[in-house]
Write a structure and sequence with these properties.
Radius of gyration: 42 Å
Structural class: alpha+beta
Order of helices and strands: HHEEHEEEHHEHEEHEEHHEE
Strand content: 15-25%
CATH superfamily of the largest domain: Histidine kinase-like ATPase, C-terminal domain
Number of strands: 12
CATH architecture of the largest domain: 2-Layer Sandwich
CATH topology of the largest domain: Heat Shock Protein 90
Largest sheet: 5 strands, antiparallel
Strand order of the largest sheet: 2-1-5-4-3
Number of helices: 9
Number of domains: 3
Shape: rod-shaped
């Protein structure tokens, strides 16, 4: 769960970074384009006035700069390539050293990257000479760098805020999970200690009686040894189930193999039919339902489902076992006609520390962890487990696994 929370936090930070970068980058580029458009409008205004008064091109250009208070440089380039600056601006104008560049700038303004970058437009005037209009781009580039720094700062601040909020939420979430886990652990340890205390008390009592010679009758001694052996088996079952739950809860991956779940289920069904002749058993198994999983754990899953039926339903209660595949999913449904679970249990989360009826294991000799083990195995196989009322009147265990 913590890994999942960390993954969601990382995704949220990544999304925040992408969104802030895209939005901020778009705003920065849009601001630069807007400033560049204003420069081009000033340059194009000079071009319009010169084209309107071709006989007085230079005068028209200078007059327009003065009237509009434009920060533009004017230069005259002869057809031989000689250049003379007519009007200076804040631009440290380096001059034009290529007629190809002049001709390129005849149709539209172009940017010239130099020690002092500038925007350039050329106008052909009478006599074959060229009038150069240039605007300083230093301020525009400075604004761009400033905006990019602000964008980086905003992105860092947004990420820091996202990380802070994620850590805060994850800690609060983890505290809630830890509290729930502690509560389940305390309940589980209480149940487990009670289960262990009962057989230990019986074993200790009979052991004292046998050691003190209080049971001299052969029948009584045989009965005492039988009870001790029964309680030892009960303890072994509980310890085995606890070890299996611990194994299923470990983070290390289980080795999976391709398994024919139909064959696996049929083997358990055959054994179940052999030892439950008094039950009406309906079996519907689709052939060759293959999936990747742990053979040992899936064996235990089916075994636990059928063992629960034997322990908790009358000997003549009907049973239905169905296995079918649908797309990439395999559905195993095991139903019984027993008393079912308490109404509230159908809405209870099935977890490793969860028991639906604490008294059931003590009456039936089980560890009381069968359904928890089923849930852990299904979770190990990234499947889904559902408990619902059966059409037969009892409990229906629905297991969905991925092929």
């Amino acid at each position: 769960m913590k890994k999942t929370g960390s993954r969601y936090a990382a995704i949220s930070i990544l999304v925040t970074t992408i969104l802030s970068s895209v939005i901020g980058g778009f705003a920065t580029i849009d601001a630069r384009n807007s400033d560049l458009q204003q420069i081009d409008q000033s340059i194009n205004l000079i071009v319009e006035r010169v084209n309107s008064y071709p006989a007085e091109a230079i005068s028209a250009a200078i007059l327009t700069i003065d009237e509009e208070s434009l920060d533009l440089t004017l230069a005259l380039v002869t057809k031989e390539g000689d250049e003379t600056v007519i009007n200076e601006s804040h631009l440290i104008y380096p001059g034009i050293n290529s007629m190809a560049l002049v001709k390129k700038a005849l149709t539209e303004p172009i940017s010239v990257e130099a020690a002092n970058p500038f925007r350039l437009r050329a106008i052909e005037i009478a006599g074959g000479d060229y009038l150069i209009v240039a605007a300083d781009l230093q301020k525009l580039n400075t604004n761009l760098r400033s905006n990019l720094k602000n964008l980086i700062g905003f992105t860092i601040a947004a990420n820091a805020f996202a990380i802070f909020i994620s850590i805060l939420l994850l800690r609060r979430h983890d505290r809630g999970l830890d509290a729930q886990a502690l509560q389940r652990m305390q309940r589980f340890l209480g149940d487990a200690s009670h289960e262990l205390r009962t057989p230990l008390t019986v074993i200790k009592g009979y052991s004292e009686m046998l050691s003190k010679g209080q049971m001299n009758d052969v029948v009584d001694r045989a009965r005492a040894f039988s009870r001790v052996n029964s309680e030892i088996e009960r303890m072994e079952s509980l310890i085995h189930d606890l070890l299996l739950l611990a194994e299923l809860g470990e983070s290390r991956p289980t080795t999976f193999e391709v398994i024919d779940l139909t064959e696996l289920t049929r083997a358990h069904v055959n054994d179940f039919e052999l030892f439950n002749t008094g039950r009406k058993i309906e079996v519907s198994l689709e052939e060759s339902c293959e999936l990747k999983g742990s053979r040992e754990h899936l064996n235990r899953l089916i075994q636990n489902c059928l063992s629960n039926i034997v322990r908790h339903t009358p000997a003549d209660a009907a049973v239905s076992i169905a296995l079918k595949s649908k797309g990439k999913k395999v559905h195993l449904v095991i139903e019984d006609g027993g008393p079912g679970l308490p109404e509230s249990a159908y809405r209870t989360e099935i977890a490793a520390m969860n028991r639906f009826d604490p008294s059931r294991s003590r009456d039936s000799g089980g560890s009381g962890l069968g359904m928890s083990i089923i849930a852990a195995i299904v979770q190990e196989h990234t499947g889904k487990l559902e408990l619902r009322k059966s059409d037969l009147g009892g409990l229906a265990v629905v297991v969905e696994l991925t092929k």
